[in-house]
């Protein structure tokens, strides 16, 4: 049986609610703009939370819009810039599943189709409402015979389509959950990258903070090797809010604590410390998933560089106490996670790498002893792997080898690279 993917548009495929954005455009010069906009937003939220019927919400919003075709043109331009980040980077998934990745929305085809068609989504697989216009091009209503204009519209549509296959639903609102409630879909994934509604997440089969997460748990083609929302970033001490904002905006799971609590030690992937914070050697030695530490101050005397080297942990610090480093340090940490960059680290060879494109990047951290690169390249040669580029730098006892390879390879090569003698840590990136 085929798998079908039913994806919502507003606040899922895009970061925003399109009708709310249309109101911003159409009411730009209206004297009561803010009051009308708040009323439109209220209708949206009430429907998404299941407190009023979808038809009641839709009719109320369309009536307040005062929009025309020229406003729609501006909206489309705006929405193309507001595609959710995790959808934007996963065009390859839609290309490979163009016949089974569908958009099903209570929004309108007039603005949905131009946005999603750029992602290889076929027009016949876009199900949405349609506007009614008068002779002057003003929006005067919508097609009330379309099942998606009615309460439970997505359920009614899928009942009519009678799809033969396993259906997975992805969305942020109550109308998306109704598909699961109806028994028509296999699983419902609450999408929370843009907004999280407890009335929806409480009932979901799985909460997916990004489209990467959905693709990962279903073992589908995806742009990144591991969803960043699964990587825990712990922030401890006196750290400015901007630092947390930068890392959260990058998609990481953030926890802010006064101290490094024991329960987080084994799971933390990134650690950002405020001035004066100290990590005990015993605690640091148990942080097996820790990839990088950022320190807002001079790290000397506050954690063991030797243990970080032994565990392949990249350290970025702020020896001179510059104010801008509250932003600079978290950006360096993110650059290491995303691209493998170690530029300006305290303990690692400093590498500023080219952006990764159409390749898999293998990061091999090892003890700086003779013969390691020979072993690594022997594995690549035995598997006839096409290498696009390779970088090697050493610093003291640390060797850092970065290899960009063609994405088509036998996955046993990864296991063999991890088993190379003197390997400290191995990681794979792809985008």
Automatic annotation (TrEMBL):
Every ACT domain range: 361-431
GO molecular function: L-phosphoserine phosphatase activity; magnesium ion binding
Cofactor(s) for this UniProt protein: Mg(2+)
Record key words, sorted: Amino-acid biosynthesis, Hydrolase, Magnesium, Metal-binding, Serine biosynthesis
GO cellular component, one term: cytoplasm
Keyword DNA-binding among UniProt keywords: no
Catalytic reactions on record: O-phospho-D-serine + H2O = D-serine + phosphate; O-phospho-L-serine + H2O = L-serine + phosphate
Sequence intervals crossing the membrane: none
Highest taxon, organism lineage: Bacteria
EC number(s) per entry: 3.1.3.3
Protein name: phosphoserine phosphatase
């Amino acid at each position: 049986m085929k798998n079908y993917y039913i994806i919502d548009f507003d606040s899922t495929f895009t970061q925003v609610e399109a009708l709310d954005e249309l109101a911003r455009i159409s009411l730009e010069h209206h004297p009561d703009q803010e009051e009308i906009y708040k009323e439109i937003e209220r209708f949206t939220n009430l429907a998404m939370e299941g407190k009023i019927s979808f038809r009641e919400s839709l009719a109320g919003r369309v009536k307040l819009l005062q929009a025309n075709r020229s406003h729609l043109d501006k909206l489309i331009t705006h929405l193309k810039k507001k595609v959710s980040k995790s959808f934007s980077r996963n065009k390859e998934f839609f290309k490979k599943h163009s016949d089974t990745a569908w958009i099903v929305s209570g929004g309108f085809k007039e603005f949905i189709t131009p946005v999603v068609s750029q992602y290889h989504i076929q027009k016949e697989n876009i199900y949405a409402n349609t506007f009614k216009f008068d002779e002057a091009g003003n929006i005067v209503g919508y097609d009330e015979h379309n099942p998606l204009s009615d309460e439970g519209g997505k359920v009614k549509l899928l009942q009519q389509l009678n799809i033969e296959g396993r259906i997975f639903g992805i969305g942020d609102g109550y109308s998306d959950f109704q598909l699961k409630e109806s028994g028509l879909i296999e699983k419902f994934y609450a999408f929370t990258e843009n907004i999280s509604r407890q009335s929806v997440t409480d009932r979901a089969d799985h909460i997916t903070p990004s489209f990467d997460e959905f693709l990962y748990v279903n073992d589908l083609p995806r742009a990144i090797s591991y969803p960043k929302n699964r990587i825990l970033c712990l922030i401890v001490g006196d750290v400015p809010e901007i630092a947390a904002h930068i890392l959260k905006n990058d998609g990481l799971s953030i926890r802010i604590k006064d101290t490094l609590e024991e329960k987080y030690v084994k799971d933390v992937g990134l650690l950002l410390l405020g001035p004066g914070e100290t990590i005990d050697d015993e605690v640091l030695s148990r942080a097996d998933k820790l990839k990088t530490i950022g320190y807002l101050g001079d790290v000397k005397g506050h954690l063991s560089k030797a243990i970080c080297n032994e565990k392949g942990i990249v350290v970025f610090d702020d020896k001179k106490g510059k104010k801008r480093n509250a932003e600079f340090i978290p950006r360096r940490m993110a650059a290491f996670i995303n691209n493998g960059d170690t530029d300006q680290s305290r303990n690692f060879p400093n590498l500023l790498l080219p952006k990764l494109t159409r390749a898999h990047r293998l990061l091999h951290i090892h003890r700086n002893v003779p013969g390691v690169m020979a072993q690594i390249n022997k594995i690549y040669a035995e598997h006839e792997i096409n290498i696009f580029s390779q970088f090697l730098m050493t610093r003291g006892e640390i060797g850092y080898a970065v290899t960009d390879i063609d994405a088509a390879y036998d996955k046993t090569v990864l296991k063999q690279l991890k088993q190379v003698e003197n390997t400290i840590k191995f990681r794979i990136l792809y985008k």
